[in-house]
């Protein structure tokens, strides 16, 4: 660093802006050994002797005392000073004052030229001609940085003169504009710099702190001739532009009044994406996953993914009805999956475009998760076979927070996809010819811009005229290319009128070959038993309570937890954490990959899980016992996420999308934290199958329970999930033999609130053993994680046992149901509060308590059985949530339907409120005592009408 202060300068304070951080390192190395440094002048002309001058004088005395590149540099400088070459190279003493002044000027002139080169590399993009309309500057500012040469008089900024334009200057090693030449005239240097940095491509890269990356970019763009296309490449580009533009023209002619969010004004995006894919295929990529908003999506489907045109065109026909289930979606939201030959490389490549709603950047983390999963299943740890491309609008890219959340995942080990190509579409640099959509009238608000747009010559004509003028193609060849594609479109349009071709399954972005069928026949709509042999339970428990690695020292507190697990195994019981361990472990044994993600999931938010053990004496040494269960088991991934819900939940959704043979779980730190990921829940999880026929088995673990922890750490907002459930509250069901499974098949997602570890174990296993995939929402406990009563026996988990949608009363009240005066239905943690209160009041024979474990789809059959079992009992729904929240609004109409409105069901719980919970501990306890008293006041509802 001390050497930097000694360098001569004519720019003073400006120097600090000209030198990027990596150049400091570059100079400090090269000034000692490798040649001329990056330009960094530090004082005005006429100052004291500098480090450069001292090096020059050392060279005069002994040319071998400096690096050979400095030797070449000083020889050239001396020749230009018209010094005697022999005297310049081998002086017997220091030169005269006049000679030193001349040499000093030459050195400073060379440094000034190097500063000029650096200025273009740093700020050339500010004056690049990026606006095709010619009405805005690239940086929205017409000011030209004073250190960029655009007129001769600005040479004075560097103490250079017009006479210096034809002088030859040594080029620094930080530029490639010379190609194989080491010197150029100043005039040619400026011409090449302006050609590279100030034309129709802007480069902003000097902020990068990696020297190698900066040099790579410089070499690619500065080297003469590198950025030129061959004649064949130009013809390919023209053909792709023809397809891009004529596709939009065809849609505009056939469906002039339909919204399609066309690509007019940005047609070059199609050849750009195809070129990226070509180059990726050439370098070994086999699978490319794309995500993009709606602008240009149909064109990308047609000309990049190569979806059949008739499938696209039939989506415009209002008379055709989809033959598949679900609501469907607008055509510019749908996705696609296609495996084809890349004609440039003649290699197979799989392309998928992920379906996306109008929530623009919401698809970004979904694409990354799907990419990560594809890489994982292929063993592609470096991302050499699977990659992703994300297309953005400029405003959304800058303004949508999920973009940053997705970036934040890029270097986390269990989330990185090893790089993504981002294509940002600027809506005015590449303008929208028709406004926001085809029904828009942009002249209302942007009259001057759209007058200019209407005068704009389309890029296809501009490029065709250029190629015709230079002889690359003839006018006849160009017209034949247009006629050929127009004919393809017309023929596809004719085929699109066939009603048989309209199947939404043609738009799947993640098909699961072989999953829905066995030997060509649809799978049986049954669910296998979810219990497992006791020896498997025991083995998993023993591993869960041990440390598989030798010489691994764990925390003393954790030793106590592991001993507690071992004791439970001896007693054939499990708590919540151990039940989860056994569910995961048993699935791993069956070849099912399990992935658990979220904030602090490795230990567990409530310090109950401990799936990753940390050596207390060796830094970063960890052990995951779950991966030491069996030699040939599937892998288990448990990973603490970044502090993100939106991005991470989208990522896990995409991961679950890639394969049905995995259990993918996302756990919120507290249940209501999912509200910052609401877009993913609303747009992808709740509606994904209806809109896009996308089955997905993702599991959301949402800690829930009113325990006096305040409004942000209590409720997972079950009412939101239940409101979005699609089962009909007014439809009296037909109870067939396969009612349970058919209900699950017809629902959009499954919502459960388990009250026992065994039921949690079964519902996790059922999620994978079902013959289809549905999202599963689980309201998980907090206090029940260590509640002495919240334990299950092995008997409830062994072979033959299964998930209980409803857990009926099994105490004294069940023995004499005709004497029961009140039947309380509830779900989740409040059951334990009710049991305790019932016992304290001695009402075990008069009050029965039934637990609703699966809330949606609603278990009509079992609820009907329970109600009929206690014909003389009042029916009560008791919940700890406020009346306008929780489950009551969902269950009430369904009870009325199944009971034919003959018996009312009374509400017991907290009164309606705005906040989900109080922040005062005492208020919480008072309200708890109040509704428990009401629940067991057998005269509470006498005389009241329903």
Automatic annotation (TrEMBL):
GO cellular component: mitochondrion; oxoglutarate dehydrogenase complex
EC number(s) recorded for this UniProt protein: 1.2.4.2
Cofactor: thiamine diphosphate
GO biological process, one term: tricarboxylic acid cycle
Entry similarity comment: Belongs to the alpha-ketoglutarate dehydrogenase family.
Subunit-structure text: The OGDHC complex comprises multiple copies of three catalytic enzyme components, the 2-oxoglutarate dehydrogenase (OGDH/E1), the dihydrolipoamide dehydrogenase (DLST/E2) and the dihydrolipoamide dehydrogenase (DLD/E3). OGDHL/E1-like isoenzyme may replace OGDH in the OGDHC complex in the brain. The presence of either ODGH/E1 or ODGHL/E1-like isoenzyme in the complex may depend on its tissular distribution.
Annotated PANTHER family: 2-OXOGLUTARATE DEHYDROGENASE, 2-OXOGLUTARATE DEHYDROGENASE-LIKE, MITOCHONDRIAL
Protein name: oxoglutarate dehydrogenase (succinyl-transferring)
Organism: Puma concolor (Mountain lion)
């Amino acid at each position: 660093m001390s050497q930097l202060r000694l360098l001569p300068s004519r720019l003073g304070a400006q120097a600090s802006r000209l030198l990027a951080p990596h150049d400091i390192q570059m100079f400090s190395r090269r000034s000692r050994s490798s040649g001329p440094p990056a330009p960094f002048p530090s004082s005005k002309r006429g100052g004291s002797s500098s480090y450069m001058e001292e090096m020059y004088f050392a060279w005069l005395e002994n040319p071998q005392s400096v690096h050979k590149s400095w030797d070449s540099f000083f020889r050239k400088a001396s020749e230009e000073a018209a010094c005697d070459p022999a005297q310049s190279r081998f002086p017997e003493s220091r030169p005269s004052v006049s000679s030193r002044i001349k040499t000093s000027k030459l050195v400073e002139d060379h440094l000034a030229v190097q500063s000029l080169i650096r200025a273009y590399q740093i700020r050339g993009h500010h004056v690049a001609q990026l606006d095709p309309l010619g009405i805005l500057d690239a940086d929205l500012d017409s000011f030209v940085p004073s250190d960029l040469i655009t007129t001769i008089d600005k040479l004075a900024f560097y103490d250079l003169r017009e006479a210096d334009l034809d002088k030859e200057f040594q080029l620094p090693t930080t530029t490639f504009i010379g190609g194989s030449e080491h010197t150029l005239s100043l005039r040619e240097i400026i011409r090449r710099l302006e050609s590279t940095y100030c034309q129709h491509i802007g480069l902003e890269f000097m902020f990068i702190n990696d020297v190698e990356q900066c040099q790579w970019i410089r070499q690619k763009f500065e080297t003469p001739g590198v950025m030129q296309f061959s004649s064949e490449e130009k013809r390919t580009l023209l053909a792709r532009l023809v397809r891009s533009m004529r596709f939009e023209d065809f849609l505009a002619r056939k469906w002039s009044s339909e919204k399609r969010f066309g690509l007019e004004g940005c047609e070059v995006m199609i050849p750009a994406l195809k070129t990226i894919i070509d180059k990726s295929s050439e370098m070994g990529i086999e699978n490319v996953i794309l995500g993009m908003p709606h602008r240009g999506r149909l064109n990308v489907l047609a000309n990049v993914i190569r979806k059949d045109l008739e499938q696209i065109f039939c989506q415009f026909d209002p008379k055709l009805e989809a033959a598949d289930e679900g609501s469907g979606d607008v055509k510019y939201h749908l996705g696609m999956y296609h495996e084809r030959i890349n004609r440039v490389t003649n290699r197979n490549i799989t392309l998928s475009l992920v379906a996306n709603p109008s929530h623009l950047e919401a698809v970004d983390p979904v694409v990354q998760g799907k990419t990560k999963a594809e890489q994982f299943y292929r063993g592609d740890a470096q991302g050499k076979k699977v990659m992703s491309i994300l297309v953005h609008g400029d405003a959304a890219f800058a303004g949508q927070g999920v973009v940053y959340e997705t970036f934040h995942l890029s270097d986390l080990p269990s989330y990185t996809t090893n790089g993504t190509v981002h294509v940002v579409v600027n809506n005015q640099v590449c303008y929208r010819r028709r406004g926001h959509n085809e029904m828009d009238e942009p002249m209302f608000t942007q009259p001057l811009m759209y007058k200019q747009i209407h005068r704009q010559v389309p890029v296809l004509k501009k490029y065709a005229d250029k190629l015709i003028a230079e002889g690359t193609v003839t006018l006849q060849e160009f017209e034949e290319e247009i006629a050929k594609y127009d004919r393809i479109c017309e023929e596809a349009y004719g085929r699109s009128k066939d009603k048989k071709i309209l199947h939404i399954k043609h738009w799947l972005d993640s098909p699961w070959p072989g999953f829905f069928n066995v030997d060509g026949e649809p799978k049986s709509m049954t669910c296998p038993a979810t219990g497992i042999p006791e020896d498997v339970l025991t083995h998993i428990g023993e591993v869960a309570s041990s440390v598989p690695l030798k010489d691994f020292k764990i925390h003393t507190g954790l030793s106590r937890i592991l001993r507690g697990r071992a004791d439970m195994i001896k007693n054939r019981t499990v708590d919540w954490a151990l039940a989860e361990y056994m569910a995961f472990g048993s699935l791993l044994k069956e070849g099912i990959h399990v992935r658990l993600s979220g904030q602090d999931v490795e230990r567990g938010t409530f310090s109950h899980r401990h799936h990753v053990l940390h050596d207390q004496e060796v830094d970063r040494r960890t052990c995951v016992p779950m991966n030491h269960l069996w030699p040939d088991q599937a892998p288990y991934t448990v990973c603490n996420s970044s502090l993100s819900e939106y991005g991470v939940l989208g990522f896990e959704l995409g991961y679950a999308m890639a394969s049905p043979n995995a259990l993918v779980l996302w756990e919120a730190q507290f249940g209501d934290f999912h509200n910052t990921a609401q877009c993913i829940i609303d747009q992808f999880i709740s509606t994904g199958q209806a809109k896009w026929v996308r089955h997905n088995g993702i599991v959301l673990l949402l800690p829930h329970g009113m325990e006096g922890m305040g409004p942000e750490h209590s409720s997972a907002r079950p009412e939101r999930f239940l409101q979005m459930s699609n089962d009909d509250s007014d439809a009296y069901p037909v109870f067939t033999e396969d009612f349970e499974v058919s209900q699950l098949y017809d629902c959009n997602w499954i919502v459960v609130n388990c009250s026992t570890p065994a039921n949690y174990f079964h519902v996790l296993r059922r999620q994978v053993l079902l013959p289809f995939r549905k999202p599963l929402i689980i309201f998980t406990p907090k206090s029940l994680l260590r509640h002495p009563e919240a334990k299950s026996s092995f008997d409830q988990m062994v072979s033959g046992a299964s998930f209980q949608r409803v857990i009926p009363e099994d105490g004294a009240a069940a023995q004499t149901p005709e004497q029961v005066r009140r039947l309380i239905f509830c779900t989740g943690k409040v059951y334990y509060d009710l049991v305790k209160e019932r016992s304290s009041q001695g009402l075990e024979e008069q009050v029965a308590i039934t637990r609703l474990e699966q809330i949606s789809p609603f278990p009509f059959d079992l609820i009907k059985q329970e109600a009929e079992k206690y014909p003389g009992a009042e029916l009560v729904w008791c919940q700890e949530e406020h009346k306008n929240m929780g489950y009551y609004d969902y269950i009430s109409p369904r009870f009325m339907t199944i009971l034919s409105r003959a018996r009312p069901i009374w509400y017991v719980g907290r009164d309606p409120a705005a906040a989900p919970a109080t922040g005062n501990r005492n208020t919480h306890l008072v309200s708890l005592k109040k509704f428990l008293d009401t629940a067991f006041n057998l005269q509470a509802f006498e005389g009241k009408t329903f």
